[in-house]
Design goal:
The chain is of the alpha/beta class. The chain folds into three domains: about 80 residues, Chitobiase/beta-hexosaminidase domain 2-like (Chitobiase, domain 2), CATH 3.30.379; about 325 residues, TIM Barrel (Alpha-Beta Barrel), CATH 3.20.20.80; about 270 residues, Up-down Bundle (Four Helix Bundle (Hemerythrin (Met), subunit A)), CATH 1.20.120. Helices cover about 45% and strands about 10% of the residues. The strands form four sheets. An eight-stranded parallel β-sheet has the order 6-5-15-14-13-12-11-7. A four-stranded mixed β-sheet has the order 1-3-2-4, with helices on one face. Strands 8-10-9 form a three-stranded antiparallel β-sheet, with no helix packed on it. Helix 19 packs antiparallel against helix 22. The longest helix is centred in the C-terminal third of the chain and has 31 residues.
Length: about 700
């Protein structure tokens, strides 16, 4: 009862048998106590949260309402009962650990693990501390302290090294940090297993430092193709005896540090291609990796993402020894239900933790798991790349991990509004229904719509990030209506309410900037100075106003995230390194000279808009203003494109932008969050722009 200490004494816990082998819980009142019955601790945690939601009207979220403030535990008549059809409820994407949790401390993880339990998650990805596994294993293989540290990427990029995309990016320099990661990883896994969760630990698929060839004669190691223009990596052939030797050493070190819990994640040739492509070779790779796991742990199960699945590899693994994570829920139908292997039906939703409002909540409520006829589908999974956005969507997504059928979305939205905002006013219910009809409508499925504010300036709109969506897919007037309904409340007083007022205002005005960009380009191309100046100035003004608004919410500011990055470091050198980890990730995202992932993890954050995005746009508009007297049209499009985007330094125009971005990385000093009145600032902005947006 860590999360509600004031009412901890109101509960009594009892253990019951599973319901036909399935997790179950029951909540009722007896002798003045709220009795929570469950077949395991996770089931009891779910029963506890179900009671709190229904009778204490709580909403716990990553975005506002970060804590449950409950001082009274009302008794009730009747019973809350539930049987969970999904055996496995899997959570976290490697990318989540890079975008959202890279700089978390134990206090953050403790809250997150409790949140997992209350939502029924029993299989979290648990690879925090894997830096220590690699470090100490490399030291055992005679690497020097510096040699081992220099192979390991910094916290914001380490998850991609685990996925074998690159190595040594913003590499580490402090052994004390390694020690702290080992301690944190142990705390996390100990708490997860204490609650009855099954951690998914890190496995080994063969990526190694090039220098390992000095330790073994005739080792079969090959250079892998560069990923997104990062330096090349090296792959140890899984059929080479050294593969088992080194891989087993990693697994043994992991067991020594954290224990061994039977599920090991690895994705051979993830986002890359094997040097040898014959079916026979891929079959041997599958056998070699499975044999390594089985030799180390007879009860082991290989966990593989569907992204990198290769038929010949997984067909080499005996049934029962592989669990496939269907990350976006689409691959099972393309592979004959993964050729009979157990799989988890997943939902990915967010890419890059970009804070744009989007997602089809009807698709969630319809419950794809309930309608799937596949006996080897053993559960559900939530695999977002980030979790610091779209609180309404995620509240429902977590709930659907354990639902047995469709739910009534209208009733759910009414209930959500009251729990989220602490009031049953009609205007609040109208607000969430307007969200359903705009940013959470059926059309808003798939990838996010890119932010024009965060888009690298250009004369013709391109994708803000690789593979995002250009069209808005809903009417901004309806979203503005949601904001007006929220602001009409006289009773809402929760932190979630304040967050949503801020977030929806941000999105409405960001959408308006997309319109102003098109107007400015129309003025430029038709040589209408009045339209160009009016639209470009209005665009920049909104950037300033949105930045001021966001500065009132610390979690939506660059300064607060830089603070977290700095505080994770244990030396001045690592402090600078970790700050650069964050700054590079949210901007350049790659080698500064040849980045193709630039702006992949864009954020509409206070301090970031003001110092980075708005500066780019101001420079761009000034550049175009100078060209007005010249005859002929101008286009900033580069001759070559990558992912339908301009090359990072594809022409002189973008080389000057790259110079600004590199300088920004070493000089940025954003203002700290303010104590401004979020709701009042949002109200002022809504009144100012109401006519413009609604007409």
């Amino acid at each position: 009862m860590r999360n509600t200490p004031d009412i901890a004494g109101a509960f009594e816990l009892r253990t019951i048998e599973p319901a036909d082998g399935k997790n179950t819980y029951e909540v009722f009142c007896e002798n003045g106590k709220i009795v929570i019955c469950g077949d395991c601790k996770i089931s009891m945690a779910m029963g506890y949260y179900a009671y709190l939601k229904k009778y204490c009207r709580v909403n716990l979220s990553h975005c506002g309402n970060r804590e449950m403030k409950v001082s009274d535990a009302p008794l009730f008549e009747g019973r809350i009962t539930k049987v969970i059809p999904q055996k496995r409820r899997v959570y976290l994407n490697y990318c989540t650990l890079g975008y959202s949790a890279a700089f978390w401390k134990w206090e953050d993880w403790e809250k997150e693990i409790d949140f997992m339990a209350m939502n029924g998650i029993n299989m979290p990805l648990s690879v925090v501390g894997s830096e220590a596994v690699w470090y100490y294993t490399m030291r055992d293989f005679t690497y020097s302290e510096k040699g081992a540290l220099s192979f390991l990427s910094g916290p914001a990029f380490w998850p991609w090294q685990l996925m074998t995309n690159f190595d040594s990016y913003f590499s580490l320099s402090d052994v004390k940090y390694i020690e702290s990661r080992a301690k944190l990883g142990k705390q996390i896994i100990d708490r997860e297993t204490e609650l009855g969760m099954t951690p998914v630990q890190q496995g080994f698929s063969g990526m190694v430092p090039k220098s390992i060839s000095r330790l073994f004669k005739k080792i079969r190691i090959t250079m892998a193709k560069s990923w997104c223009n990062f330096p090349v990596t090296y792959q140890l052939d899984p059929t080479d005896p050294v593969f088992r030797k080194f891989g087993t050493a990693l697994l043994e070190k992991q067991k020594q540090l954290f224990g061994a819990y039977h599920y090991y994640a690895c994705d051979p040739f993830h986002e890359n291609e094997p040097v040898v492509k014959t079916k026979d070779y891929l079959h041997k790779v599958g056998r070699a990796i499975d044999d390594m796991y089985q030799s180390f742990d007879p009860d082991s199960v290989w966990v593989m993402q569907s992204w990198s699945l290769r038929e010949q590899i997984i067909k080499a693994v005996p049934k029962g020894r592989l669990l496939v994570l269907d990350i976006d829920g689409s691959k099972h139908s393309q592979t004959g239900e993964f050729y009979g292997h157990d799989f988890v039906l997943g939902n990915i939703h967010s890419f890059g933790d970009r804070n744009t409002l989007h997602g089809s909540i009807k698709a969630l409520a319809d419950n794809a798991y309930a309608s799937l006829e596949a006996e080897n589908c053993v559960g559900t999974g939530l695999f977002p790349e980030g979790i610091y956005q779209n609180p309404l969507y995620y509240d429902l997504a977590f709930q659907m991990l354990t639902e047995s059928g469709k739910i009534d979305l209208d009733a759910w939205l009414d209930d959500y509004a009251e729990r989220r905002y602490g009031s049953d006013e009609k205007c609040l219910k109208d607000a969430v229904k307007a969200l359903r009809n705009s940013c959470y409508s059926d059309d808003c499925t798939g990838r996010e719509t890119g932010s024009v504010i965060c888009m690298r300036p250009c004369t013709v709109r391109t994708h803000t990030a690789p593979n995002d969506v250009l069209s808005l897919r809903y009417d901004n007037k309806i979203l503005f209506g949601a904001l007006k309904s929220l602001l009409a409340s006289e009773k809402a007083n929760t932190d979630g309410y304040i967050f949503d007022v801020c977030d929806i205002t941000r999105q409405v005005l960001s959408n308006r900037c997309a319109e102003l960009f098109e107007d400015a380009m129309k003025g430029f191309n038709t040589r209408d100075v009045r339209i160009f100046e009016r639209s470009s100035n209005a665009f920049l003004k909104i950037c300033d106003e949105v930045d001021e608004l966001l500065q009132t919410r610390p979690e939506l500011t660059l300064a607060d995230h830089l603070r977290a990055a700095s505080e994770l470091a244990l030396s001045d050198k690592e402090k600078e390194n970790f700050e650069l980890n964050l700054l590079v990730q949210i901007t350049v995202w790659g080698p500064p000279v040849r980045s193709v992932n630039y702006d992949y993890a864009w954020k509409e954050w206070g301090g970031l808009i003001k110092t980075f995005y708005a500066k780019r746009w101001q420079s761009f508009f000034e550049f175009l203003a100078i060209r007005f007297p010249k005859r002929g049209k101008y286009s900033s499009l580069t001759k070559k494109q990558y992912c339908e985007r301009n090359l990072y330094q594809g022409n002189q125009f973008y080389k000057s932008f790259a110079e600004f971005e590199r300088k920004w990385l070493s000089t940025v000093d954003p203002e700290k969050p303010t104590d401004g009145d979020t709701v009042q600032i949002a109200r002022t902005l809504a009144e100012k722009y109401e006519k413009t947006i609604t007409e």
